[in-house]
Amino acid sequence: MASAEDRLKNLTSENSETPLGQIPFIFSASRSAQKEFATLPMPQRMKVLSQLRHLIVEREQEISRVISRATGKPPGEALTTEVMVVADAILQIEKRAPKALGKQRVKTPITFIGKHSYVEYKPRGVVLVISPWNFPFMLAMIPVVEALAAGNSVIMKPSEETPEVGILMESIFKQLGIPEGTVQVTHGGRLLGEALIESKPDFVHFTGSVNTGKAIASATGPLLIPNTLELGGKDPMIVFEDANIERAVNGATWGAFSNAGQVCMSVERLYVENSIYDHFLDRLVEQTSKLKLGTDDSSDIGPITTSAQFQTIQSQVKAAISEGAKLLTGLDPDKWNPTSRLIPPMILTDVTHQMEIMQEETFGPVLPVMRFDSEEQAIALANDSRFGLNSSVWTKDASKGKRVISKLITGSALLNDVILTIANPYLPYGGVKDSGLGSYHADSGIQNLAIRTAVMTDPGRPLSEINWFPYQGKDELFEELLKSYWGASRNFAKFGISYLKLLSKSKDRH
Ligand code: NAD
After folding, report:
1. Residue 431 beta carbon below 6 angstroms from any ligand 1 atom
2. Suppose 433 and one of 2, 101, 388, 506 were both cysteines; which one would form an S-S bond, judging by CB atoms 3.0 to 4.6 Å apart?
């Protein structure tokens, strides 16, 4: 087989796509590898993860370059927002997974005296990870690592828009030397994704657009395949007059324009309190105008990754301008270059909340700005969206910031910062409303990639139980039990007596 480097050099859609006919073999390899992998004791499983982490760190330059070439983002940004985030997530998973997936003892109610209860986690089996092109390394690798930690095998289907990254990840898992079939990378688009789901994986972890998320929900639903859907966003940023203005300006600029705005958690709507609006806007325009557009390593903003995305951004900005919005920075959309796909960052004012640019995900370097007069109005504007991924509130008054956050209907939120929650592996990550279903990251994310078995044990010595047959003569005693333990006047002595009488009645017949 050709090396990853050779395959990257000669990449065409014909030589890189996985034939659909291979899917049954991919699944049978995955199922047999999983049986082996699941027998590895936890410390050894974690050793595999730490070897993976070391490999990623060793190959960081190559990985950042390949991501940059595939997406257009600057290599330095690929390093900090993808490679470093993955390395850190793996390290945290190595630390937390053994406890998160260990047996968890829980209490047992008094009426089940003598019994014990615990929760046990077992691998689900074959986990399918379908990922998008905007963070093609990070959004594929983290769910894969969580799935491996839980003892699953994984079939990956990275985005067809960034095939280089798929090939690179395949070469990383080959070099890791885990048994064949434990992690398999497939290459292709929608048809491949659909066919993989039809082959009934045991879990689907999907990251991508709302429309594809809905298609996946309708494909997995009838097959009852559990899944996590991480979908789009239209994240609001609320800046109060008492915020650190310079920090908020810089945060808005990075939050809206990093990765050319192609971040699910990009700042896509900016609400600024009336009293500081004009000054804030002047500073925002000044800072935005300094950003360097281009393809060399020192650029801040690279090209839009796909032509389709370029057209979506163009159409939304044109529609907003035709409805009265004003462009304070950037270029008229008719003058954008579809060949280079470099779009200068835009600040847009005079927008209304009914405009598409304020309601639909744009996924590009455009920041529409609106004013607000009160806390209530800012909250109402932020929540007036079908999306609910992330949000941010900017104020020096921490209690006001937290009060506002507790009223925002979003899966995550930040005070005086942007985007960052996704990079903290201790926080669960997932959207609400149209932004998704379920979550990953944190202990709950790792546990979600496992089957949870709730266990109760009994020493097995008594011949019967108080609630088993015969029922005759027990109703009154059960009523006494109910009233003495759960009623308003608790009487533990009475409870004990009723319990003992029930026990002796249960013994009568044996
Ligand atoms: P997309 O939905 O077009 O594609 C995502 C993946 O799904 C690709 O691998 C694609 O081949 C596959 N796919 C497409 N149709 C399929 C089907 N019917 N069955 C199975 N697989 C199918 O998304 P995209 O354009 O690659 O990514 C951009 C979108 O992803 C944006 O909406 C963005 O907000 C969202 N996103 C969300 C998060 C998050 O964590 N919530 C992160 C990044 C991106």
Report:
1. yes
2. 388
